[in-house]
Structures are given as structure tokens and as C-alpha cells.
Amino acid sequence: LEGYRGDYALQCYNPLVCRWLRKRAPGMPVGLLLNDLPGLHFELARRVKDNLFSAICRPNFLTYNIEYVSDGMLDRHRSNGLVVLGFGLDSTDLASGAFKAKVDNIIFELAAAPP
Fold first, then answer.
1. How far apart are CA 37 and CA 46, in angstroms?
2. pLDDT tens for residues 29-42?
């Protein structure tokens, strides 16, 4: 990214990679992607895992799979100074705007145009 003049942020699922990025480039915004882990389909286990991962890497922002964001999560993270982004939204979520109660903003992938 040397020489790039636009805004950017990096994010990853692995808290150790996130921590490595933060140490190597302290001014770069680094986020932690959070999703459900196989076998941890209840909120308490997910919350423990998410808190542990956040403590390891101290991200600038969090990105959650919108499916796993529960009521109150946004308030807890905001109280710690974190911005929360969401991914995995479908067209119904986007059209209704209901995601705004769960996350600060969204990220999404653009599908490649057919050749």
C-alpha cells in the first residue's frame, strides 16, 4: 500500500495476524472479522471467543456476520470505542434498513460482471 493515496483498512479473521499488522503499521486501521465457529452456536461461547480475540489483537474496528449480531452488541462495542461493521446481508436486509439497529455500517462484495 506504499504510495497509495486513497483511504483503506485491512481486516482479517485471525487475531494473531491482526495483532501482527497493528504492530508493523501502527497508523493503519486494522479490523477483526468475527463469525460463528463450528460447534459454538450459542451466544455465551461466541461472546467469550470474540472478547478473547479482541483482547489479543486490539482492533480498530470489528466486522461481524450480521446473522450473529445480537441485541446490545453494538452498544457494548461502541462503549469500548469500536466501530462495528456487518457483512452477509441479503437484499431484504438492505431494503428494510433493519441492519442499522445492529451495526454502524456494512461491507459487501460486488459480484463480477459476466464476460
1. 8
2. 999 998 877 766 67
